[in-house]
Amino acid sequence: MPANGNGFKKTITVHIRRGTRENNRLEAYQVPFESGRSVLGVLEYIYNNIDSTLRYADSCRIGLCTSCLMRVNGKVVRACTTIAEGDLTLEPYKEEAMVCDLLAELPPISTKNESRPIELQ
Known about the structure:
Elements: E1 11-19, E2 24-32, H1 39-49, E3 69-72, E4 75-78, E5 88-92, E6 98-100, E7 103-104
Parallel strand pairs: 1-5
Antiparallel strand pairs: 1-2, 3-4, 3-5, 6-7
């Protein structure tokens, strides 16, 4: 783990939208910085080491599905393929889709006969 000039391990602050659509708040976590770690990796660290009540989704882990779709620092991305390069604010990809924490109702997936990509805004 990289250390800053003072010999201390570098950490990032991760603000996560917690709760439900009707009753939510931002909660802050301090996570050790690890170069190349994905946003999904950061969530796994929080779940495994800090707060096992955190709710989020993942499935393929290679950017093919949309289960880890969320808003990272204001931009909708797939958490599994987005690298955490500094402090983060993580929210459901759409406020109205929020179920609990980062779990959200997912956008419809294209069928065999309809080949259009899911649009990330």
